[in-house]
Amino acid sequence: MPIGYWESEHLLAPVDLTVVGGGIVGMSTALHYRQLHPQATIRLLERDPIGEGGTTRNAGFACFGGPGEWLDDIGQLGMDTWRELVAMRIGGLCDLVELLGEDALGLEWTGGWELFSDDSEGRERAAAVERMLPDMEQALASLFESGLGHIHPRAGHAPVLAPDLERAAAMGAHWAVHMPMEGMLHTGKMVEAFHHALHDARVQRIHGFEVKALERTEGHSAFPWTLSDGQRTLESRSIAVCTNGFARQLLPDIQVERVPNRVLVVEPEKMPPVGTYHAEDGYLYFRPLPAGRILFGGGRQFGLIWPDDPQMEEGIREEWDRRLLESAENWLGPIRHVTHRWTGWLGVGADRMPLLGSTEKGLFHAVRMGGMGVAVGCGMGRRLTQLISSTMDGVAD
Question: What topology does CATH give the domain 257-347?
């Protein structure tokens, strides 16, 4: 489809920065870049009308991981790098709150719980976590106090982690750990607030443009990068790839895998106490919604392989949902009705550390959020902006 005069001269004219991906990372990158470069031209491209990654399809947890998950991270990364990872999540959530505001996010500091099932595997895992709990508390207390002290009412006034036998009994668990710094936010309100902020920041936002190719042209052009959807091309001085699990479609050598995550909304006969809940080392999670509903998601630990052939997806979805509903009934009791079912897509890798960097001059990326995009995404956008600004010459100020 040819580009017309008004498009080429203004609407689709070359820009200083093109952000590919309209999720939390991409939107926050554009906003942070605007703060550093008030006169720059910025364009954000998203292939879907709303988004099909994790940003619009997450559970709305304002969380930092949990002790079951952290136990694996410590074994894999070591204490220092694990602490750095949690600090990244704390800082990212603070960036999100400071950028949009608690009211716009619908943020509530409800506290969260990790539940350990009353079977041999759950008891063994609980015992391992209990042994490490004092070390985790010591490592994290100062992080949460310094990082969340200006936005969280309980930061510095409560333990970061505490056993909670009363909540365990109420939920039919063997053991539970209370995480008072956790909260819940409203994902729909968050995305809407981002869109308003992008408009106010004069960031051009185009939905429905799927970038299929990136190409750099050597020479003296001020805008050496072209982005193509197969029909049209756009020009840019630099590019920020913020497509998380879909990054390898544009950067084939990047170490990130796209994995599905299923979510159900159910109506249980009995509602649990208000808060966020993690189970099976964070692979299952649930939280209350209005009107007596519960969002219940996860299930990557089921080991089901999502097929590349769309015609085979239905059978996997049905099996995944069956197991997820079975897990929901195990934790919540009888389920009256399932009102919603959907798939979100995550970007994961060999460990839970996000990937930030540049593969060519003017081509940058922040991807692989590891299922923690709400917490870490906005901070990654800020860090990506700093990287771009420190690397590129001739950026409008």
Answer: D-Amino Acid Oxidase; Chain A, domain 2 (3.30.9)
pTM metric for this prediction? 0.95
CATH 3.30.9.10 location in the chain: 257-347
Question: In the structure encoding, which two tokens stand for residue 175, read together?
Answer: 């053991």
Q: Which of 329, 325, 234, 170 is nearest to 19 (CA)?
A: 234
Contacts of 219 (CB under 8 A, 6+ apart): none
User: 5-56+189-255+352-391: which CATH architecture?
Assistant: 3-Layer(bba) Sandwich (3.50)
Lookup: tokens for 156: 């510095």
**How far apart (Å, rounded) are the C-alpha atoms in residues 71 and 113?**
16
**φ/ψ of residue 295, rounded to 5:** -90, 125
CB 168: neighbour CB atoms within 10 A? 20
Evaluated on CA atoms 254, 260, 265, 269, the torsion sign reads negative
Q: Can you say how many angstroms the Cα of residue 109 is from the centroid of all Cα atoms in its chain?
A: 18
CA-to-CA separations, 205 to 3, 30, 246, in angstroms, rounded: 17, 10, 19
Tell me the three state secondary structure of residue 274. coil
pLDDT in tens, 194-247: 999 999 999 999 999 999 999 998 776 899 999 999 988 999 999 999 999 999
Would you report the helix, strand and coil content of the chain in percent, each value rounded to 5? Answer: 40, 25, 35
CA distances from 104 to 82, 91, 107, 287 (A): 31, 19, 8, 20
What's the angle, vertex CA 57, arms to CA 95 and CA 337, rounded to 5? Answer: 135
pLDDT reported for residue 396: 55
Report pLDDT for 393. 63
Structure tokens at 31: 């906003």
| Residue-wise pLDDT tens digits, 81-123 | 999 999 999 999 999 999 999 999 999 999 999 999 999 999 9
Tens of pLDDT, residues 280-300: 999 999 999 999 999 999 999
